[in-house]
Amino acid sequence: PLSIRPPAHLWDPAGYVGAIGPIEGAPPAPGTPVSGIGELLLSSDTPSLVKADSLLFEALSTRPGDARLHEQAALLWAAHAMRNSATWRVDSRPFLNGVTAHLALAHVLSGGAPPGIDGELAGIVMDVLLWRQVDAMRRLDAIEAKGTDAATRAWVNALRTRVTLDPRRANAAPPKARIEKLEALYAINRTRGDCA
């Protein structure tokens, strides 16, 4: 019988790797990510997310064994989760299921290689949405310690704001990416009663 025992929490992709089973042949080399996905996810508006859905669906249809594409798909599910979880009426579990499935597939398809930045960010979004703030902040610190590009910094800033509910930024620079601005507004909305 199949036994699934996630080590950290129900949506921990490591618990589902064994359920996927071995995939025939050697894992292919990581492919080229779909260009433009990062910008679409940072925009985080409905037309951008729909376009990213379409681009990734097409790419995964032709390259289903590409671990890099599954990491991008996990981050797409995570972006949907971040956007939709900003209201209290949305259940994040379907989005977390999508993130988990794609991260588990990416792990198997990569031969167990560490995740790329898209996979790492998708995993952090899961920690954030599951109220695992200490783990999320630790992982965000590790990403920042490596040095990051502007897109990754925008995700890190947005996720820090979601965890702390504090839109003030250490560098005092205003947010540039739409996802950062949305998270700042979310934080202000959630804490406005605390300011009285």
Task: Write a brief caption for the model.
With 196 residues, the protein is mainly alpha-helical. It has helices spanning 17-20, 37-43, 46-62, 67-84, 93-109, 117-129, 133-146, 150-164, 178-191.
Shape estimate: globular
Mean of all residue-level pLDDT scores: 86
Q: Strand pairing plus helix content: what structural class?
A: mainly alpha
State the oligomer: single chain
Summarize the biggest pleated sheet. none
**End-to-end span in angstroms?**
56 Å
* Secondary-structure element string: HHHHHHHHH
Q: What is the alpha-carbon Rg in Å?
A: 17 Å
Record field, number of beta strands: 0
In DSSP terms (H or I, runs of 4 or more residues), the helix count works out at 9
**β-sheet strand percentage:** under 5%
Which segments are poorly predicted (pLDDT under 50) over 5 or more consecutive residues? none
Percent in helix: 55-70%
Report on the architecture of this protein.
By secondary structure, the chain is mainly alpha-helical. The chain is built from nine helices and no strands. The protein has helices at 17-20, 37-43, 46-62, 67-84, 93-109, 117-129, 133-146, 150-164, 178-191. Helix 6 (117-129) runs parallel beside helix 8 (150-164), helix 7 (133-146) packs antiparallel against helix 8 (150-164) and helix 8 runs parallel beside helix 9 (178-191). The longest helix is centred in the middle third of the chain and has 18 residues, at 67-84. 37% of the residues are buried.
